[in-house]
Amino acid sequence: MASGRGAGSGLESFARYYPWPGAVYAPVLDAPWAHSVLATRAGDGDPEVRIFRALTVALARELGSIRAGE
């Protein structure tokens, strides 16, 4: 996109985390709410994976309750 050869869509956070020179981020205000998933190996015992999974679930619940209150 930044090379002037395409267009795409992404998360709102892309503008913050990927500020490519020449890239313009424009919100699509009437877009439907999107769903995301986190995939990990079943039974992964790595402590970092477990922590990341727990944080992701907590954030999803928090954002879901915020979204539901709109």
Describe the protein in words.
With 70 residues, this protein is mainly α. Helix content is 37%, strand content 0%. It has 2 helices and no strands. The chain has helices at 14-17, 47-68. The model has no long low-confidence stretch (mean pLDDT 78).
Q: Share of helix among residues?
A: 25-40%
Distance between the termini: 33 Å
Provide the structure class: mainly alpha
Instruction: Write down how many β-strands occur, each being a DSSP E stretch of 2 or more residues.
Output: 0
Mean pLDDT: 78
Count of helical stretches: 2
Which sheet architecture does the biggest sheet show?
none
Our Rg estimate from Cα atoms comes to: 16 Å
Q: What share of residues are in beta strands?
A: under 5%
Q: Could you give the order of the helices and strands? A: HH
How would the global form be characterised? elongated
The unreliable regions are none
Keyphrases for this structure?
mainly alpha, single chain, 2 helices, 70 residues
Topology:
Elements: H1 14-17, H2 47-68
Outline:
The protein is mostly helical. Helices cover 37% and strands 0% of the residues.
